[in-house]
Specification:
404 residues; alpha+beta; Butyryl-Coa Dehydrogenase, subunit A, domain 1; Butyryl-CoA Dehydrogenase, subunit A, domain 2; Butyryl-CoA Dehydrogenase, subunit A, domain 3; 3 domains; 50% helix; flavoprotein; Acyl-CoA dehydrogenase; Acyl-CoA_DH_CS; AcylCoA_DH/ox_N; acyl-CoA dehydrogenase activity
């Protein structure tokens, strides 16, 4: 979204932004954020509970998200986005405070799929694929995690890529499997990361999902992020033309460039989930009567809410600063890793307190907190577990790698 084109809209700071971090946004960014919030409240939130329970994706929301601009902030040649990383973070927060699955759809489409093309593609690849991803003409996925390789993706990828010469100028043959790939059951392309048999380096490929040998099967029976259509992918002699090999994706260091950008956004989503649970808990506390007064007037309930707000505030301070560092070009892996590890741990704690404040009614989807409580478990683990992100920071602190 180019925020200068957003219509004038009244921006109201969130009550959960207790220290007013959003005040540093420009007037245009505040107007754009207000527009995003209004659209999500009117067009997305009413569909969430039913679809979460059915483990179905509300496809009708996709055009609106892309028209709004949140589903693929435009990438350009000189810097990743035309607006600040702090603004993009607050946009991710707004998505997550409505639903973590919708935030995940956007994160995969924009941060992982489009991000891979932008950071690792040639000028020609960027010019062809990025506008299609931004408009929603093409839905993308990101295929890194495997059934037997998650935290050890840097060294343990089993999906292979073999180059073959041919009359068409050459192509690659991919074989292997991927797991937990969001959007892949209904998407158009997947960025597949595979180990080159020749030099043993991880490389990236844009693979159309209708390529022969590419099979995506929905993962069923999830207890978190039920709206996200995660897939198991099998790749059997999948032929990818040279033109679809990401030109600048030639080692896991290039994969890490993408993850460095998106990991901070996941931290913002964690804050958004905590905010969504907190807002629901506060509203419930003001309405629920016990012992002749609202439970908001009970000390123990206030204690749970204040502790949750403290976690949100501390996490928000962390992610705002990480985004400032990203804009300044000084953010390193350990900075985004600390933000992700801390914010997701505090999110997990806060949603549990919010659910506790509601008593038995906290497990009912109608009150929203149960959904945030369940979804927090997935956010806590994906895009690098707390333990792996801790070790990234630990290496930066000590100079010693303790991954194995």
């Amino acid at each position: 979204m180019t925020v200068e084109t957003a219509p004038a809209t009244v921006f109201e700071p969130l009550a959960a932004d207790f220290y007013g971090f959003a005040n540093e946004l420009t007037d245009a960014e505040k107007a754009a954020l207000a527009r995003i919030r209004a659209h999500l409240a009117a067009e997305v939130k009413p569909l969430i509970t039913e679809n979460w329970e059915k483990a179905a994706f509300p496809f009708e929301i996709i055009p609106g998200l892309h028209e709004l601009g949140v589903a693929a902030f435009a990438w350009d040649e000189t810097k990743p986005f035309p607006n600040s990383a702090v603004f993009r973070g607050f946009a991710a927060l707004e998505l997550a405070r409505v639903d973590a699955s919708v935030a995940t759809y956007v994160g995969v489409q924009n941060g992982l799929a489009a991000g891979s093309v932008s950071l690792c593609g040639s000028a020609e690849q960027r010019a062809y694929w990025l506008p299609k991803l931004a408009s929603g003409e093409i839905i993308g996925s990101f295929g890194l995690t495997e059934p037997l390789s998650g935290s050890d993706s840097a060294q343990g990828l089993r999906t292979t890529a073999r180059h073959e010469d041919g009359p068409d100028g050459g192509h690659w043959v991919l074989n292997g499997s991927k797991r937990w790939i969001g959007n892949a059951t209904f998407g158009d392309i997947t960025v597949i990361w595979a180990k080159d048999e020749a030099d043993k380096q991880v490389k990236g490929f844009i693979v159309p999902n209708d390529t022969p040998g590419f099979v995506a099967t929905k993962i069923e029976n999830k207890t978190a992020l039920r709206i996200v259509q995660n897939a198991d992918i099998t790749l059997t002699d999948v032929i990818v033309p040279d033109a679809n090999k990401l030109v600048n994706a030639n080692s896991f260091r290039d994969t890490a460039k993408v993850l460095r950008q998106t990991r901070a956004e996941v931290a913002w989503c964690a804050v958004g989930i905590a905010v969504g649970a907190y807002e629901a808990a506060v509203a419930y506390a003001k309405e629920r009567m016990q012992f002749g007064k609202p439970i908001a007037a009970h000390q123990l309930v206030q204690d749970l809410l204040v502790k949750s707000l403290g976690n949100i505030t501390a996490s928000l301070a962390l992610v705002v600063q990480v985004s400032r560092m990203l804009d300044a070009g000084v953010q390193r892996d350990e900075h985004s890793a600390l933000a992700k590890a801390f914010a997701t741990a505090r999110m997990r704690e806060s949603v549990a307190w919010c659910r506790e404040s509601m008593g038995g009614n906290g497990i009912v989807l109608d009150n929203d907190v149960a959904r945030f409580f369940a979804d927090a478990e997935a956010i806590y683990s994906y895009e690098g577990t707390r333990e792996m992100n801790t070790l990234i920071v630990g290496r930066a602190i000590t100079g010693e790698a303790a991954f194995v």
